[in-house]
Amino acid sequence: MKGIIYAGVFALSISVMSCQENKSEEDTVPEAVQSAFQKKYPGENDPDWEKDDHGYWESHFKIDGEKYRADFNADGTWVETENDIKKKELPQVILDIIASEYADYEITEVEHVQSATKGEFFDVEFKQKGKNKDVMFKKDGTVITK
To answer: Which of 10, 47, 58, 138 could form a disulfide with 142 if both were Cys (CB 3.0 to 4.6 A apart)?
Structure first.
């Protein structure tokens, strides 16, 4: 009986140890990135981090209950911050352009973006066959990219 108990405890111990996260050096957020994040978003002490498909360190955090994503290069350089918004939150000039030029498309996602290189813009994703279409608009309705 004791042997069965010991075997059970041993098996449980092995399974718990195998489930522990083994973070490699590649998975560790660089200090420069963490420091840059704290300077940009003071008081946000618990972001979730992951490395995205572009090689950026992407933080997920909340401000006043709203979800945000901020990207940083490994050297701590801020790339951009984005958050999902509702279509009705777009500036009216953009809503008018969508109604006239993209009326046949279904909107799948709308993001408000602050970018180090492009400034502030709105990224509107339209559903279409194949790959979805992203159109980036400046606040005044100027199209950055289609």
So the answer is: 138
Instruction: Give the number of other Cβ atoms within 10 Å of residue 79's Cβ.
Output: 16
- Write down the residue that tokens 């279904």 correspond to: 106
Residue 73 contacts residue 59 (beta carbons within 8 Å): no
Check residue 129 and report its DSSP letter: S
Give the tokens for residue 89: 């939150």
Secondary structure of the chain: what % helix, strand, coil (to 5)? 30, 35, 35
Distance of CA 113 to the CA centre of its chain: 11
Name residue 109's amino acid: E
> How many Å from the N-terminal Cα to the C-terminal Cα in the chain?
70
Beta carbons of 124 and 130 less than 8 angstroms apart: no
**Amino acid of residue 57:** W
Main-chain phi, psi angles of 54, to 5 degrees: -95, 0
| pLDDT tens-digit map of 34-88 | 999 999 999 888 899 999 999 999 999 999 889 999 999 999 999 999 999 999 9
